[in-house]
Give the backbone structure.
Amino acid sequence: MARHDDKLAALATMSPAQLRGEWLQLFGSAAPPVGHKLLALAIAHRLQEKAKSSLPAKLTREIETMVRQFGKGEEIKASASATLRPGTQLVREWRGATHRVMILDDAYLYRDERYGSLSEIARKITGAHWSGPRFFGLTKNGAAA
């Protein structure tokens, strides 16, 4: 365990190039274009995950997909299987305005009003019929409008 702790401590003093080397070794791909502090945190997380336990394979694949998307500069979207818990905030840009929806236990809160579905909110925002999950990018085919 001391070796593991030493490796974690060493991350704080590594140069950006050394961190990118660590990333390549751990993830098997080039590091995304992020700052060295975020890179060190991600590497530390992976090292601890390997040392103490691992995430479920499905979640690991999803994270790796998101990392690849981020590295390519693509928009990162939640998977259809993502669990939306009360307190989660959905944010959508639409025609120059930012729309925020808070997930409640039994409804959605948008501009201080409760709605029974995301589709109702999407319709209020766009004036047209939309699948709410698709509008907010929660489905695999959720297209940016």
